[in-house]
Structures are given as structure tokens and as C-alpha cells.
Amino acid sequence: MLAFVTAAVPVVAQQGRPASGAGDIAAVQRHLQSLSTLTADFSQTDRGGRVLTGVLTLKQPGRIRFQYARGVPLLIVAEGGALTFIDYQVRQVQRWPIRNSPLGVLLDPSRNLARFARVVPGPPGVVSVEARDPAHPEYGRITLILARRPDAPAGLTLQGWVALDSQNNRTTVRLSGHRYGAPVSDGAFRWTDPRRGSPRS
Fold first, then answer.
1. pTM of the prediction?
2. N or C: the chain end with fewer CB closer than 10 Å?
3. Type and span of the H or E element at 21
4. What's phi and psi for 187, nearest 5 deg?
5. Is 78 in contact with 98 (CB distance < 8 Å)?
6. Which residue, among 117, 136, 119, 118, has the nearest Cα to 127 in the 3D structure?
7. What confidence tens digit (pLDDT) does each residue in 97-126 have?
8. Measured in Å, how far apart are the chain's first and last C-alpha atoms?
9. CA-CA distance, 106 to 100, in Å (whole number)?
10. Do 84 and 74 touch, CB atoms closer than 8 A?
11. Mind listing the domains of the chain with CATH numbers?
């Protein structure tokens, strides 16, 4: 499943970082701040090579939903300051503070990325930004991958991310079919608690 890491504290700056690093981080910050809503198809690959697909829905501030394809009894929803993982097959619900997850980078664009992220080398036309907490290696790290596109918000589009947990288990999420600014109801982030069978929001 999605690996969870923190993105709430500064990281140590990498020596020899390219001079464009600060400008790229500022561009990523502008991109995240310019998003109001985003809907995209996603493909998630775990360490064993298993691939799951579905639809991602994001609404600022602080809401995201990973709706997996039919037949996959999983759901991930962020709302109310918490990230919730629901497994309907075993009727299990787990919750984490959004601030301690990689999705906190996406869902709180008011944060100053320069304080806790750095640009990592990538191919031309791609901006890769890594966030991690050196004080808590158990949280792992996440690398956001964005492509330069003049027609996208702030000239960038989020292609996905790679998350590594403390055991170096890798989860890769790829996005496609981006749709920006479309109306998204708050009801899109409600979910049914399998322990009670009642809607939650």
C-alpha cells in the first residue's frame, strides 16, 4: 500500500545542489498553491510488483481520495486532518495524521517547501523533490515527480511520487489524465465505515 512518511520538518541541505534547486522548489510551491481541485487516474505499484489502479480526487485544502478500481476492497481518504485507510475485506480502518504522511506535502500548500524538501537530479523537463525527516528515519521518505508543462498550473504537472519506508519498501504512484479545476463536491470524501456500515465524512 502507500508508504507513509513525514514532511513537516526541515531536512539537511545537500551539498553541491544545483543552483536551480531553490527556483525549482519555488515553482513546485506555486504549482501546489495554484491547485484548487485535481482529478486523475492513478497506477500504484508496490515492492512486489503488484499494480493497482483507480481514480484520485484532490480538493484543497486537505482532502484527497484514492478510489481503487472495482473489485479492490480498499479506499484511502484524507479529510479532517487525518489520512484514513479502509480495507473493506477485513473490515479494518487505520488513521494517521496527514502531517505525518507524504500526502501532507500535497494537502498543505501553505508550508514552506524550502524548509523540508530538496531537489534531486532528474532528466531534462522533470523536477523531482524529496521530503524526509532525518530525526525520524522510521517515517521513510517521498519523492514527488513533476513534469514541466506550460499549459499546467504554474507550468508544472504532478506525474506521481515514489515513497520508501524505513525498510526500503518502495511504493510508486503514477498519475495520468489530469483534470484541473473541475467542481468537486465535499461529499466525494465521505466513506462508509465497514465496522458500522454508516457513512463517514
1. 0.82
2. C
3. helix 21-34
4. -65, -15
5. yes
6. 119
7. 887 776 777 788 777 888 788 999 888 999
8. 22
9. 12
10. no
11. 21-179 (2.50.20.10)
> Which residue has 488513521 as its cell numbers?
95
Q: How far is it, in rounded angstroms, from Cα 33 to Cα 109?
A: 5
Q: Omega before 199 cis (within 30°)?
A: no
Residue labelled with grid coordinates 487505520: 94
Query: Is residue 3 a contact partner of residue 165, using CB atoms and an 8 Å limit?
Result: yes
In the numeric block, which cell numbers belong to residue 166?
A: 524505513
- What is the identity of the amino acid at 49? G
Looking up cell 551539498 gives 15
User: For 128-166, how does the pLDDT look when each residue is reduced to its tens digit (9 = 90+)?
Assistant: 999 876 666 666 788 999 999 998 888 999 999 998 877
Please count the other Cβ atoms lying within 10 Å of the Cβ belonging to residue 147.
15
Show Cβ contacts of residue 174 under 8 Å, excluding neighbours closer than 6 positions.
Answer: 42, 43, 44, 45, 159, 160
